């Protein structure tokens, strides 16, 4: 059973999401919160698999809520998915950097909402290659900040190559084609790189690749 926590200051939206999710045999909404402070308390109480968190809330916003969850070792299993009305904006980027597994627009169709919860619960990032490219297009033109990213010494040459390709928006299948390896091997390289760099998911791995200087905008 996938346990879900809803954190949003709009009761009507919470009720709608609960109604959509509770009818699924493998999903259970364990609690609801109206702001980030209440959400953090309920996350610690219920330890959900997935927390759907509004990005703009009173008391504690979604970015800080995400950061506190990601920084707490006791909450390592909780996957935060950001809810936004605005599509991919600067706030979503900040939430991904804080540790969110991905994001959803609130007017998502019911089937996609259910699918997204299952994807997040599996530990996968809710960032398709097209979204990764949008992240790069929108934000990688910002100046790189040398020294802010982690060291890459722990990565093998093949892992570095796979990460660089992922940071250019390539899927595992495309990485496999480019590196002339199997998709499973490509996935293994990416997963090992995430472990070594302490990246929670592919979204953070892409960000780390740019902040460390492994990939520069001209590589796109």
UniProtKB/TrEMBL annotation:
It comes from Streptomyces radicis. This is DNA-binding response regulator. It holds the Pfam family Response_reg. GO terms for biological process: phosphorelay signal transduction system; regulation of DNA-templated transcription. Keywords: DNA-binding, Phosphoprotein, Transcription, Transcription regulation. InterPro entries: CheY-like_superfamily, NreC/VraR/RcsB-like_REC, Sig_transdc_resp-reg_C-effctor, Sig_transdc_resp-reg_receiver, Tscrpt_reg_LuxR_C, WalR-like. It comes from the Bacteria. GO terms for molecular function: DNA binding. The keyword Magnesium does not apply. The modification 4-aspartylphosphate is found at residue 54. Residues 148-213 form the HTH luxR-type domain. Residues 3-121 form the Response regulatory domain.
């Amino acid at each position: 059973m996938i346990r879900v926590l809803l954190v949003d200051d709009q009761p009507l939206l919470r009720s709608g999401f609960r109604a959509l999710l509770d009818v699924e045999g493998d999903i259970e909404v364990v609690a609801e919160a109206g702001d980030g402070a209440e959400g953090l308390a309920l996350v610690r109480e219920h330890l959900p698999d997935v927390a759907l968190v509004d990005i703009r809330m009173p008391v504690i916003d979604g970015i800080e809520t995400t950061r506190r969850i990601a920084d707490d070792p006791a909450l390592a299993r909780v996957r935060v998915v950001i809810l936004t009305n605005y599509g991919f904006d600067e706030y979503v980027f900040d939430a991904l950097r804080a540790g969110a597994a991905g994001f959803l627009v609130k007017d998502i169709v019911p089937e996609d909402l259910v699918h997204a919860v299952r994807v997040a619960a599996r530990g996968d990032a809710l960032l398709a290659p097209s979204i990764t490219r949008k992240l790069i297009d929108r934000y990688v033109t910002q100046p790189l900040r040398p020294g802010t990213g982690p060291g890459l010494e722990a990565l093998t040459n093949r892992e570095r190559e796979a990460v660089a390709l992922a940071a250019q928006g390539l899927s595992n299948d495309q990485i496999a084609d480019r590196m002339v390896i199997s998709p499973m091997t490509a996935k293994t390289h990416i997963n090992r790189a995430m472990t070594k760099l302490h990246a929670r998911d592919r979204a953070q791995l892409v960000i780390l690749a740019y902040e460390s200087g492994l990939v520069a905008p001209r590589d796109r």
